[in-house]
């Protein structure tokens, strides 16, 4: 992976398995946009969420030319939260690339003809 990757764990111990999976997922992001300047991934388990069990939140922040893209995923399983966050990140990147290429669908102005 050419893009600098920073991984942060909050309120839980770093997991080698999660780190490896994050590295794989982050490397795949470059297939959708080769101009990613930086990628930051935060894996956390917020405190005080006892009604819904132990939820994991994964946030993926990407710096790209023209802006900052952020995607996140929340789930009771850390790997499922990771998958949801990176799926959302891919959608954000695809939207960003479409906007950069001006591939966004444009609506024709309505013609106001009287008959």
TrEMBL record:
InterPro entries according to UniProt: RHF-like (IPR036567), RHF/RaiA (IPR003489)
Superkingdom per UniProt: Bacteria
Descriptive protein name: Ribosome-associated translation inhibitor RaiA
Species for this entry: Skermanella cutis
Upper lineage: Bacteria, Pseudomonadati, Pseudomonadota, Alphaproteobacteria, Rhodospirillales
